[in-house]
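Why does this matter for the project? Reviewers at the last site visit asked to see concrete outputs rather than summary tables. In response, this paragraph embeds two records directly. Each consists of the residue sequence and, immediately after it, the corresponding structure tokens. Nothing has been edited or filtered.
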Amino acid sequence: MDMILLCKLRSWLIILGIFMPMAAGAMSLSDYAENPIGPILFVRHALAPGTGDPGNFTIGDCSTQRNLDAQGRAQALALGEQLRRSGLVIAGIMTSQWCRCAETAELLGLGPVLPEPGLNSFYQNFSEREPTLEQLRARLADIGTAYNPVRPEITVMVTHFVTINAVAGLSVTSGGMAGFNPVTGDAVQIDGN
């Protein structure tokens, strides 16, 4: 599909209220801090060995979940330091209710952390995909409506690969970041430099 047709299709979908994310390549964190594309900075939880969660998974019980290891905790601390040095104005920090996300968010050290069920993983159906994404889209719409690009404030959302991919259309590694504009659907991968 040629780019002009893709842009026209995307414009119509946005008018109809349907997001069709367009990735804009990658930016450094310092460039993003100077010129963010929108009010959301998705952060995928830091390193947590393994895939998925055990069958006895329970929200609020970290002993039933896949969690950060020492390398993941160090990664989250380093990412928090990079974000503080970047100059981004942080409006708030929200996290999935999964322990690996909540611990990542706390270790960032950017301020109070609020749980947001819309950021939960639906990878193994411990949360249902559509109701979870519907809740997240409502939260994103509220934040997007209040966004002022003249004085940009960023909401950091710590979540999972599947959530970032479903909303922003990007594949983000553990501890990776993506900028997102919920009004336009634009998304960009952020390098930690």
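We now turn to the second protein, recorded in exactly the same manner.
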Amino acid sequence: HGVAALIFDKRGVGKSTGDWRQATLEDLASDGAAAVARLQSEPRIDKRRIGIHGHSQGGTLAPLIVARSNQVAFVIGSAAAGVPPDSGEIFSVLNSVYPKAKTAADSANARAYVSELVEFAYWGGGSRAKLDSLVAVSKDQPWFFAPPAPDNSYWTFSKVFARYRPLESWARVRVPVLLVYGADDQRVPAAESASRIAAKLRHTGNRDVTVRIFPGADHTFRLKPGPSGWPDTAPGYVSSLLDWVAIQRGRR
């Protein structure tokens, strides 16, 4: 299809040096901008047609990369969160514990526990003593999970991410945008995120916004396994990406 892809390991992943858990959001965005700059020096690449495809956290931070590079021609935001980070974290964690709740009271208690944990992790609200007291009364519940250890990077990275406002970053994006989601995403609220990001882009003058939400698909665009036991990729997912990128390629 005439499309090349540069895929790099995040800091501290694979053979990449550093540690993403100790990085700022600006560090991570700068890494993406550096990848764009690297492609600018590649003679086989058309410098006018370099775009970004970011998934999940990568999609959420994609507009920060655009702000750091004036060479980005288009953006694919894949499972990009359009809600505040703490809200997204509550959504994600609750989706992992709700299936283990046996009663309505279990669900309510789980929500109270998760809300307190996220409030403490992201904003330093409440207190460790209050969180520990919830742990003590919840530890025998079917949905319970222990908080990360005090020295776990979750606590520091949550505070870094807490102040990020994705819609404010998307408001500055002027290049074509494709937003793709799985309708059954349990990590990112798909319909709400798509609606909020698209509305912000259009409100600030970017009319070149396309949204695709794939029925039955999860966070990685897979469908629930069928009788064979193997999950399938959502029909039309790959072709939608290729077709949209082909349109961008033909514009220059």
